[in-house]
Amino acid sequence: MPDSRIGVLGDLLSGSAVTNTDLKTLELALQKLLASPKAQALKQVIQSELGGLPTDASNQDYVIAALQLGLDPLNSIHGFIQGQSGYRGQPASVVIEGVGAHLVEQGRATPQTATFAARLLLALRAPEFLVKGIPANVTYGSLIWVQLAMAVARVEADSPGATPTMSYTEVLAKAGQTGSDRLDSQHVQRKALTDWAAASGVLDGSSTLTDSDLERARIAYNSQLSTLMKASAAVQTEIPSRRAMALARLQECFPGVDPSVFEIRDIQKAWLRPGRPGLFPGMHSMLDIVMEGAPLGHEEHWISKNPRIPVKRFCHLYEGGTFKVAEDFKRQYDLAIQAHEDGHKGLASYLVSTLPQEDRNNFKHGKLEFFHTNEYTMAMDFLTPLALKTRGHTLHVKTTRGGEVNVYEIDTRSGTIQKQNYLRGRYTEPYTARNMESRTANVVSKTVLFDTLSPAQGTSGSRFDAIGEVFARSLDLKNEDVLAYARGVTSYDENRATNQAVGEFFLNLIPFRSAIVNFIKGNYGEGAFDLALDVVGLLTLGAGKAAQAGKAFSKGVTSIRGLSKALRFVGLTAIETFNPAAGLGDLVVGSGWLLYKGGRLGLRGLNKLTGRSASYDVLKAASQQHGVAATGTFKVAGQTVEGGAVLKDGKWYSFDADRMQAYGSPLEDFAAKARAVDGAIATVEVAPGRELSNTLFREYRVSESNLAGRTRNSQGVYRAADGHTAHIRHIDSSGQAAVYEVREVTRTPEGVVQARIYSANRQTPLLVQHVQGDQWMRLGARGGNPPSVASDLGRMMGGGSESRLYESLDGIHVYKETREPGHVKVPDYFERQAACLNEYHGEGFAMTLFENGRGYIKMKKIDGVALDAIAPRSLPKKAQQALDQMLADLQKKEMFPNDVQLSNFMYSAKENKVYPVDFDFPPKDVLHFDESTFAIHRDDFLRDADKLRAQFRQMIA
Questions:
Q1: Distance in angstroms (rounded) separating the CA atoms of residues 128 and 171
Q2: Residue 868 has what pLDDT?
Q3: pTM for the whole thing?
Q4: pLDDT over 80 at 117, yes or no
Q5: Rounded to a whole number, what is the largest CA-CA distance in the chain?
Q6: pLDDT at 368
Q7: How many CB atoms lie within 10 A of CB 433?
Q8: Nearest C-alpha neighbor of 635 from the set 602, 676, 660
Q9: In sequence order, what DSSP letters do the residues of 638-651 get, joined into one string?
Q10: What range(s) does the Kinase OspG kinase domain occupy (predicted)?
């Protein structure tokens, strides 16, 4: 056994080849340490004591558990970190250094091994501290630190030990693709939440926390996270360009015209009053005229002698009100500027909250003075006024508390708040021009006292908001110079000066453009996207993809659930309600850590053993190798968790589905659910994919009154007294009960009861099998195994770049299939489309399925024809009413489709109805983020609806 005087780590290092240089690299030093003769001998002793199985993985785990026990025998390291108020608001490196010093003080490490010991312990207990490339403003105890900790937990649950070698962006991207198990994620969420709550003052970190305390902290955290996400999304809002909008409208109306023609200044306004014609001065281009948007007076027209310019059609469209670009631009511009004001206000407030405790106290309780600086260029003479050179985007804040003065710079472009006390001399009263201005060559820097807050003004929370408001006002975004830049210059106002400083300020207003902290290439979800880290540490789809993903802020602002999908914040999640097992990890020390790790691996391997289509192929393969394999439940620190196991010498052992091997010590109270013996399934629960969904098959249901006076027989069937009719009662997984008429009730040679469901005296494709009581499951057409999607696909009806459409063999459904294989789950956009279809047509209209690397949407078949397949002048006039009614329904229900085009709608001549069949729309929480967001979605829909009506009118006879 190890020498108790120097601990497990010291004892193992004394007999290893690990050098002081090796200790600087955790992975290398640990590899050498585990390969040492002393480590191998210790492994044998522990394995013998615990009765564990000898495997490569568990051999290392035994020694690592011993190292953990030696460094932190009472599992108290998290309590130590949380108890150090000085760590809050500090980067991870400060905490690592502090943990190392603590281990030295406790006699568990030496000054030479302190950093290695700290990193080893944190790799086991809090690996988020070891993630590489953590942004400077993602400090311990901050809002985003909680997200990092939860992301690390999700990745570690899927790939134990992976995160210390990963970068911050890689962890968030991986977490965005990884499901979390309740055992591990809630344990980590609880710890990270209490850290944040104590650091932010939501809870008193020194007292014992109750469930109500945690719930209060959870609600506060989710609220502040939502606010930050909205701010991050807001500053990514595209500020419209009047020129770009006008050019797009012209290209839309004149698709066959060379775009260069739009800029030929060969059009003149004419007064065509008979007998008194006249020409107005000035030549303009089509682009100039549309950008300006000035109305034509009575008997005024546009004329041109240039044959390349389609002036007659242009004049006709202009007079008809087609080119309302100037009005649309001003409306969108005002919304975008307001979004930026709100966003920069939110970011500035958040940056203050990330500071260490002492600095936050300066902002909470001190006198605050705000200073803003612009730079100007001097001319060569004394008469020309100064010209703006650089418009300031930062704000300096002077804090005075207890006689101590500090100066901080807030910069939302780079997402930083930095102490700059070298400026204390400059920001000293009196604040005269002599003291506040400086000159370098011909550049003059002018600083002004912008605002002040006395110590008595506001509580800490409202003070942070007030700081954000001052910062937003200092940007002066509603200045006419900024509007003029966005408007652009036309022939009407060429002599208007365009200030280069305003242009630079304008382009740098969106932090995504000017201060992307990090950038990676990777796979997220179902496709390859650019991933970019915004200025506060939130990972999103890159700037070029954000608009495509959710039409950017103006097409889908962020909230915790719906909005994060719209703008695609990657790896971000709200904290859900805690359950009693959330503190499980805190109970596990020493050898118990092996069981805890087994629980995590078991949860991850459970889906793999079961199979995504409940085929249990991996479980059967495991039983071929080990004799008996099962999925089930077992105990970890007194709590029940799920996982896979194999039977060895009458005892159940945890099973690693990746390595296909058992490991660890015997499991406590393992209870098998699905069991495979020698490659065959022995018992199994009803899998969700085999479930008889009462919602999905509601058209086959009959009244509960059919069971009046009947009792269920031994076959699970309710027969009438005359024996001529039979029904079954089925309760599905949602708890909903339904009654079906059945015929052809049979019992297989194995004793299993099967029956055919009938509806309206006609046979349906549904063959069902009795499970128990009032529970049935679906089978294939000939009984036996439940039907696969592939076996139910009929003829292909059509398709696009992303999907194909098939008829179902049952004649009443269709399948939408992802065109490319290789998916690991149903794509998110398929899930969203199915949800939208159910919301419009009614629950049960559509459902998602996954099989053989492809995602599917199974939906009710509509008896109709896609609008893009309908010949011109072939529809009756009443069809126009059907389209108008459908569009009115969408508007009434606030379902504003993101992609309004003919191919996404079908017309049923039989019912004279138009149906949306391939669409998605923003969730309600996205839509009602604020009035301006709702207005943008609604107005876009109304504009798209008008285009759809115009196209549809061409089909009316």
A1: 10
A2: 84
A3: 0.57
A4: yes
A5: 115
A6: 92
A7: 9
A8: 602
A9: TEEEEEEEEEETTE
A10: 831-919
> What pLDDT, in 10s, does the model give residues 370-408?
998 888 877 666 666 776 777 778 889 999 999 999 999
Please list the residues that pair with 641 across neighbouring strands. 634
- Residue 818 contacts residue 854 (beta carbons within 8 Å): yes
Which SS3 state, helix, strand or coil, does residue 315 take? helix
The backbone torsions φ and ψ at residue 288, rounded to the nearest 5 degrees and listed phi first, read -55, -45
Domains of the chain: 242-323 (no CATH), 355-487 (no CATH), 591-682 (no CATH), 688-779 (no CATH), 789-860 (3.30.200.20), 865-953 (1.10.510.10)
Whether 63 contacts 13, CB under 8 Å: no
| Terminal C-alpha separation, the chain | 93
Q: What is the CA radius of gyration of the chain?
A: 34
CA 137 to chain centre: 21
Amino acid at 94: V
* DSSP-assigned letter for residue 662: E
Residue corresponding to tokens 């608009």: 547
CA dist., res. 239 & res. 139, Å (int): 31
Distances (CA, A) of 508 to 413, 551, 912: 7, 20, 53
Half-sphere exposure of 540 (CA within 13 A, CB side): 33
pLDDT tens digits, 36-75: 888 788 877 777 776 666 665 555 777 877 888 888 887 7
Q: Which of 250, 314, 252 is nearest to 947 (CA)?
A: 252
Nearest to 919 by CA among 832, 848, 855, 856: 832
Query: Which strands sit side by side in the sheet containing 639-648, from one edge to the other?
Result: 661-666, 651-656, 639-648, 628-636, 668-677, 680-683
Residues in the chain, how many? Answer: 957
Q: Is the dihedral of CA 147, 149, 150, 155 positive or negative?
A: positive
Q: What are phi and psi of 810, to 5 degrees?
A: -80, -10
Q: How many CB atoms lie within 10 A of CB 701?
A: 17
Q: Which of 807, 802, 803 is nearest to 792 (CA)?
A: 807
Distance CA 219, CA 225 (A): 10
Spatial CB neighbours of 498, under 8 Å, sequence gap ≥ 6: 484, 485, 489
Give the C-alpha separation, 140 to 507, whole Å: 32
Kindly state the tokens that stand for 867.
């609008």
Structure tokens at 419: 């102490």
DSSP string, 544-599: HHHHHHHSHHHHS---TTHHHHHHTBTT--PPPPP-GGGGGGGG--TTHHHHHHHH
Residue 638 pLDDT: 58
Report CA torsion sign: 596, 601, 602, 607: positive
User: Under a CB-based contact definition with an 8 Å cutoff, are residues 8 and 36 in contact?
Assistant: no
Lookup result for tokens 């807050």: 453
Q: The tokens of 6 are what?
A: 């120097």
CA distance 796 to 373: 65
Model confidence pLDDT, tens digit, residues 425-479? 888 888 888 888 888 887 888 888 888 888 777 655 578 888 888 888 887 777 7
Instruction: Write the CA distances from 395 to 301, 324, 468, 621, 729, integer angstroms.
Output: 51, 38, 10, 64, 69
H or E segment at 822? Answer: none
Proportion of the chain in helix, strand, coil states, percent, rounded to 5: 40, 25, 35
- Phi (first) and psi of residue 608, to 5 degrees: -70, -40
| Gap between the Cα atoms of 76 and 776, Å rounded | 50
Beta bridge mates, 906: 866, 915
Report how far residue 622's alpha carbon sits from residue 650's, in angstroms, rounded to the nearest whole number.
17
Q: Where are the alpha helices (DSSP H) in 750-809?
A: 789-792
Contacts of 160 (CB under 8 A, 6+ apart): 597, 600, 601
Among the residue ranges 364-373, 514-523, 575-584, 631-640, the one predicted with the least confidence is 514-523
